[in-house]
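Q: Give me a backbone?
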Amino acid sequence: MENAKHFLQLKEEIPSIYPHELFSVGPLTFSSSSMMSVLAVLVFLTLAYFVSKFKLIPNSFQIVVEDIVNFVHNFIIQIVGDRQKANRILPYVGSVFLFILFSNLIVIIPGITSFTWHGEPLFTGSTADFNTTFALALASVVIININSMIENGAFSHLSHFIQIKPIFIGFKKSIGEGFLAIINFFVGLIEIIGEFAKIISLSLRLFGNMFAHEVLTVILLGAFSIFVPAVWMGMGILVGVVQAVVFTALITVYYSLTIRNETHH
């Protein structure tokens, strides 16, 4: 009975919220999650090389890549409702989507997490590390604000957050206009807090879902070694895709709001 019990169970450690530190190069410390990010970059650079060799008459690989790009492009169009906006958003947002999707799904491939470095896992899910998701969210919000400055001008963009000049203009008109301008000034400060809230919410949502999935996977493997883990791994694919879509959809909305509609001639 004891042997049967162990047969139906697998002993796995609960994943740590902290990444496994592998080695350092100067001030930079490489962890198992950052090595997964490096692997993703190498895969995308290799993919970019093959994409540069695409021909007018596509082969099977080219058709698959073009279908993926078309899927992401159409997805962005559905969100922003404008093809021209989608064309401008696609390079960055599409790259983020593919990176998150790759990071979420690569860990499901058997053997990937089996590689070790001095007894520590060499590759672990990068999106299950808060450092990675925070960096993605921070980069996205920074790029969105930079794009807004380019589109609307730096002063116009910053005046959306710090509205001092309208206070003087308001009081010159009337006391009521002045107090209304003061209210708008504090609303602008709230907008600044909102930008930081975007970073926290984007990073925590992605990290929380992916880390929770890893923990639940280990718990299920500890309870059952057959049937249930297989179903849960299938759910992992769904979770990975959904979280990539959700993160991408949110930054697409934020990004699209900074792009002005251009008149077609």
